[in-house]
Specification:
Rossmann fold, elongated
């Protein structure tokens, strides 16, 4: 069987879906020695796979993603005589030959939600991407022989918004990298990314973003309402915003006179992020919408207690190993912070529960369930 996987995103996105693509391709090709694979991606991203007899790499051209996906990819798929094409980041070619079966991973359908449920992003690139998905995903979802999704919550959303038969959908939870573990105190700090003062002072960690669904401003408001009562005078450290000086979140922190209590660190490398997870008193993730939700599990893997939203897929992912809050309620978030940071036995209990919870999510399981989907299609249609 000749299987193609679009690994284009792994070349420039190292978190979220890019991480999923990297782990999926690396694991599937390593585990499966029977089938032949054509990987549409930069081979330098997968150095351990280069030279394998059952793998061919084809590097995508430097084109806008829609042009690559809708024009070049279906042409290459036909040229490579694929039996099956797996598109792992929500979209796929509309004009794919019927001789090639299609598997698509749909991580979420937030781009189809009404504005009353989820506000539009203020970032033009994100709005453009959501428009593209809104046009393409309904069409390719009806074309796909199998749809993989990353949570039971996303499965129900796909059924509701895309009108897809439940019988073609397979839920495959994502995994957590081995890098996200509790680090020894003596680990060398990545040079130039964090100050030692940041790590020495007690702090609450937040992954910030300009996307409204990450609710960064909500985290700042909740912190402002309770920061004077925090037992260790914890600071709020917001990481992940490249242009934070021009962000609404930064302006809000200044308006609330929190310049000395809220620290923005910008976008960090994975080693620096792991060190921050491991050093934080707690991780606050008041997201409004997730198809899966890596960050709470990453924090748990690093031995950090988590406060996060009860809504969408998050409660499914974290189970009973986190304090769940109403993300749109400042009072709910601030009460949870005071409760957790003022109760050391609870904090230690959540650390242990979190370490057990993350053991349920492995890339090995993700890979095996994906291979099971390929195997389902081997005896059907043209495969």
């Amino acid at each position: 069987m000749r299987i193609g996987i679009d690994a284009h995103l792994a070349s420039y996105e190292i978190r979220g879906m890019g991480k999923y693509v990297l782990q999926l391709v690396s694991g599937v090709v390593t585990e499966d020695q029977k089938n032949n694979y054509v990987i549409y991606g930069d081979p330098r991203v997968f150095p351990k796979l280069m030279g394998r007899a059952n793998i061919t790499f084809r590097k995508p051209r430097a084109l806008p993603y829609p042009l690559w996906e809708q024009a070049v990819l279906p042409f290459w798929a036909r040229q490579d005589r694929l039996d099956l094409l797996h598109c792992p980041v929500n979209t796929a070619p509309v004009m794919l030959s019927r001789k090639t079966q299609l598997v698509i991973t749909i991580h979420d359908v937030m781009y189809l939600l009404p504005r009353s449920v989820l506000s539009a992003s203020g970032v033009f690139r994100q709005r453009l991407g959501n428009f593209y998905r809104k046009v393409i995903v309904p069409r390719v979802s009806r074309r796909a022989e199998r749809i993989i999704t990353v949570s039971e919550y996303s499965k129900q959303e796909i059924i509701e918004y895309l009108r897809v038969s439940p019988g073609v959908i397979r839920v495959t939870h994502e995994g957590i990298d081995a890098n996200f573990r509790n680090l020894a105190d003596g680990l060398t700090l990545p040079h130039g990314e964090l100050s030692q003062d940041t790590l020495d002072s007690p702090f609450i960690l937040v992954l910030g973003a300009g996307d409204p669904r990450k609710n960064t401003e909500g985290a700042i408001r909740a912190f402002a309402s309770c920061c004077r009562e925090l037992p260790n005078h914890e600071r709020l450290v917001i990481v992940g915003m490249r242009d934070w000086r021009s962000s609404e979140a930064y302006r809000l922190a200044l308006q609330l006179n929190l310049a000395d209590r809220v620290l923005f660190t910008g976008y960090l490398s994975e080693p620096a992020l792991v060190r921050l997870y491991s050093s934080a008193r707690c991780f606050l993730y008041p997201t409004l919408y997730e198809g899966f939700g890596f960050p709470p599990l990453e924090a748990m893997a690093c031995g950090t207690p988590v406060i996060t939203s009860y809504c969408t897929s998050i409660s499914e992912v974290v189970g009973d190993a986190a304090i769940l809050i109403e993300p749109s309620s400042t009072e709910s978030i601030s009460k949870a912070l005071l409760r957790l940071l003022g109760d050391e036995p609870l904090r230690l209990q959540l650390i242990q529960l979190g370490k057990r919870q993350v053991q349920k999510f492995t890339w090995e399981s993700t890979v095996q369930k994906t291979l099971d989907v390929y195997a389902e299609l081997r005896g059907t249609g043209n495969v």
